[in-house]
Specification:
Keywords: Amino-acid biosynthesis, Aromatic amino acid biosynthesis, Cadmium, Chloroplast, Cobalt, Manganese, Plastid, Transferase, Transit peptide. Helices cover 38% and strands 13% of the residues. The protein contains 14 helices and 14 strands. It has an 8-stranded parallel beta barrel with strand order 1-2-5-8-9-10-11-14, surrounded by 5 helices. The chain has a two-stranded antiparallel ribbon with strand order 3-4. A two-stranded antiparallel sheet has the order 6-7. Helix 12 packs parallel to helix 13. The two termini are 25 Å apart. It binds phosphoenolpyruvate and manganese (II) ion. The site of phosphoenolpyruvate has 10 residues, from loops.
Length: 474
């Protein structure tokens, strides 16, 4: 297989620019008509129809009184990191479940995703020679946009499952009724998840020498496992050398990591209840997660989601498919990032391998001609979904091919591939076909656990990181 196992030549020493200190500071004009509830004047797609308004109001009021989950200062730091990724001075990796589930909430799953993202970033840092910005798609990734309002099974139609924060996945009339009590449960799960992640990130668990020792079971037999262990021993040598030079292994830089959380800001009642004014700047932040994105189905310029997101100070993402028109994208970027602040906005491209080569160049050209600074991120998952044996799946070779196309198109255009966005899990699932793990069509039924889209398993995700090895350099 063509996965690159070795670095392409020696690492080029590179000056890492200090993080940009420019926060997103929208003009008074931009914010004139905006407020945490101003989205209610616009059409909000993909929202549930709650049968009982009083219950919804009560749940929203409760959450509005709860503490914020993330803080403005953290969002501003992340923004400077996303800005570095736009300039090729960092590479961003965002990954996690398509949809978090109440029933799959446990500490080990969070630990395994965290650990996997750290291992992928070690591979990418070594290969790319730049820092990696780590963002988990979790602690709030509950609500799902659906292509149809109804799901029909054996002639019976019920409202579609919209994610655990809205209704239940079971195919029964009771489960599918949107229940506002789920908002509070979603908040509580997110709070507990963040608490654990903060502990992992700063409590010594993420120490680099430990990361290298993690020998996940799945790395034992496979080629990726060998490649990872080989890399680990090279990094250990580098650490020994640095220690001899006087590097303090107890310093924060060797023991701690920055880890951020993200989700699609889809369920606007939840987002609005967690929108808080920052006491130091007077700006509003979406305090449900550090990085919030707008999905492909809800990015209408005059829609409620764009209205909500344009006013919060968080770093944002917007998903675009092959259907995006270059002029529309330029207008959308201007609406979300009117001051053209680096790191404010990432465009997450999800087109499918073949279509990306056709359609991305025109978007890069239009955005470049408009002088807009965005961080380009590749989501190689959502344009490559297919049905096999009754399962929604993705083929590893297509996922990798889209990533390859993304790097190639940027190279040809002279623009910067800033990161990747994956649906993945630290668990040993069989939801995507192929890769070194050689999950076959027949394996799909064995460990297919997702409530929504199919995820890469740990081995497949690590293999993608190896694929990017050396391609993340400017
Ligand atoms: C998702 O990220 O799970 C999703 C629904 O993506 P998109 O908006 O790109 O379809
Ligand atoms: Mn998905």
């Amino acid at each position: 297989r063509a996965v690159s196992r070795t670095p392409r030549g020696p690492l080029r020493p590179r000056a890492i620019a200090a993080p940009s200190a420019v926060p997103f500071l929208p003009s008074a004009d931009h914010l004139q008509e905006w407020g945490p509830q101003s989205w209610k004047q616009r059409e909000a797609l993909q929202q549930p129809n709650y049968p009982n308004q009083a219950e919804l109001d009560e749940a929203v009021a409760q959450i509005a009184a709860f503490p914020p989950l993330v803080f403005a200062g953290e969002c501003r730091t992340l923004q400077s990191r996303v800005a570095a990724a736009a300039a090729g001075e960092a590479f961003l990796v965002q990954g996690g479940d398509c949809a978090e589930a109440f029933s799959q909430f446990n500490a080990n799953r969070i630990r395994d995703l965290f650990r996997l993202l750290l291992q992928m970033s070690v591979v990418l840092m070594y290969g790319g020679g730049v820092p990696v910005v780590k963002i988990g798609r979790l602690a709030g990734q509950f609500a799902k946009p659906r292509s149809a309002d109804l799901e029909t099974v054996d002639g019976q139609s019920l409202p579609s499952y919209r994610g655990d924060i809205i209704n239940g996945p079971e195919f029964t009339p009771e489960a599918r009724v949107p229940n506002p009590a789920r908002l509070v449960r979603g908040y509580n799960q997110s709070a507990a998840t963040l608490n654990l992640l903060r502990g992992f990130a700063t409590g010594g668990y993420a120490a680099l020498d430990r990361v290298m020792q993690w020998n996940l079971d799945f790395t034992r037999g496979s080629e990726e496992g060998r490649a990872y262990r080989d890399l680990a021993s090279r990094i250990e040598e580098s650490i020994t050398f640095m220690r001899a030079c006087g590097l303090d292994m107890h310093s924060a830089i060797m023991r701690e990591t920055d880890f951020y959380v993200s989700h699609e800001a889809l369920l606007l009642d939840y987002e609005a209840a967690l929108t808080r004014e920052d006491s130091t700047t007077g700006l509003w932040y979406g305090c449900s997660g550090h990085f919030l994105w707008c999905g492909e189905r809800t990015r209408q310029l005059d829609g409620a989601h764009v209205e909500y997101l344009r006013g919060v100070g968080n770093p944002l993402g917007v998903k675009v498919s092959d259907k995006a028109d270059p002029a529309d994208l330029v207008a959308l970027i201007a609406a979300l990032n009117p001051e053209n602040t680096p790191g404010r906005l990432a465009v997450i491209v999800r087109m499918g391998a073949a279509k990306l080569r056709e359609r991305l160049p025109a978007l890069l050209a239009a955005v470049g001609a408009a002088g807009q600074v965005v961080t380009w991120i590749c989501d190689p998952m959502h344009g490559n979904t297919e049905a096999v044996q009754g399962y929604k799946t993705r083929r590893f070779e297509n996922v990798r091919a889209e990533l390859e196309a993304f790097f190639d198109v940027h190279e040809a255009a002279g623009t910067v591939p800033g990161g990747m966005h994956l649906e993945m899990t630290g668990d040993d699932v069989t939801e995507c076909i192929g890769g070194g793990a050689a999950v076959t069509e027949l394996d799909l039924s064995s460990r297919y656990h997702t409530h929504c889209d199919p995820r890469l398993n740990a081995e497949q995700a690590l293999e993608l990181a190896f694929y990017c090895f050396g391609r993340t350099r400017k």
